[in-house]
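[09:14] KT: can someone run the structure on this one? pasting the chain below
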Amino acid sequence: MRTEARLFTGVAAFFAVTAAGYGWFSEEPAGTAALTIAFLMASLVAFFLRVQYRKRGLRAQDRDDAEVLETAGPLEFFPPHSPWPIVTALGAVVLALGIVYGLWLALLGFGVLALAVLGLVFQYAGRDAQRSSPPEDDSGPDSDSGPGSDSPTSTRSP
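[09:31] RB: done, structure tokens below
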């Protein structure tokens, strides 16, 4: 992801220079705001890619000596189904209608949209922790890991 991070850093630098020049030589704030938003979005993607590169290291696509076979294997986790994209779309529609019809509807739409985005972001937040935790004790009722046992593998809560 090093190459992608450098690419988006260059895009962010381009938009920063363009926004500064446009803001300096023009009297229009809308174009300057749009270019500034484009700079911030490209910076966000570049930051994410740089963090992923530091976290995971070089991928096979980043190395010149890599073989095609090294890229094979399981892909990342893809969620099977989720209600949150539909709730996000509903919140966006209610927010847009609220801009047209009144503040009360816009606030309601913003609340639904915020709830949906939080649900979407944190839906699988504990997934990595569950995967890296030690396996639970699968011993049956005949084992001696009952309430009075001093076994460290007991998963019962007091």
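[09:33] KT: thanks! DSSP finds five helices and no strands in the chain.
[09:34] RB: yep, looked fine to me
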